[in-house]
Amino acid sequence: MSTVTRTRLTAEERQEQLIAAAVTAFSQNGYAGTTTDQVARLAGVSQPYVIRLFRTKQELFLAAVLHAGDRIEATWRAAAEREPTLESLGHAYKDLLEHPELTSMLLHGFAAAHDPAIGDPVRGCFGRLYEVVRELTGATDEEASDFFAFGMLLTCMGAMRLVGPDAVPPQPWAVGLLSTFEEH
């Protein structure tokens, strides 16, 4: 007879586990296509436990969006410690494309922003990232705008699996775009 010893997670660790599962689930299926039951199964907990911690699917979704934004911000801050330039932050963002669930989570947040309860926090998250880039690099509004425009192109290309760990061979129209990816 074997005994299995379980390590009890703290409430904070369990919440982090649920948010990680939510990022995975929502990044794959979006807000409308994901249930709290799916998140619970991914995290290995009961659906009522998810609701007890986050009260609603909407609050869980927002926690996942904000988590993705926080991870991107932390990555940019670490890059700026080495070199506080747009180029350095851009390279760090390319590295994030190896974790497509984060950028996909933001895309799903943007897509759900028509809901006022989701839109304000998502816009706040995006605005915070914009201000962080300006703060870390001293970029002008125009430079930051160009940086975010190219980043959004990369995010969309990642969502279409043209860049990142699961990249598919590009169709002819994408070859030119991908060459700009390599140049930056």
From TrEMBL:
<dbReference type="Pfam" id="PF00440">
    <property type="entry name" value="TetR_N"/>
</dbReference>
<keyword id="KW-0238">DNA-binding</keyword>
<dbReference type="GO" id="GO:0003700">
    <property type="term" value="F:DNA-binding transcription factor activity"/>
</dbReference>
<dbReference type="InterPro" id="IPR009057">
    <property type="entry name" value="Homeodomain-like_sf"/>
</dbReference>
<protein>
    <submittedName>
        <fullName>TetR family transcriptional regulator</fullName>
    </submittedName>
</protein>
<keyword id="KW-0805">Transcription regulation</keyword>
<dbReference type="InterPro" id="IPR050109">
    <property type="entry name" value="HTH-type_TetR-like_transc_reg"/>
</dbReference>
<dbReference type="GO" id="GO:0000976">
    <property type="term" value="F:transcription cis-regulatory region binding"/>
</dbReference>
<dbReference type="InterPro" id="IPR001647">
    <property type="entry name" value="HTH_TetR"/>
</dbReference>
<feature type="domain" description="HTH tetR-type">
    <location>
        <begin position="12"/>
        <end position="72"/>
    </location>
</feature>
<feature type="DNA-binding region" description="H-T-H motif">
    <location>
        <begin position="35"/>
        <end position="54"/>
    </location>
</feature>
<keyword id="KW-0804">Transcription</keyword>
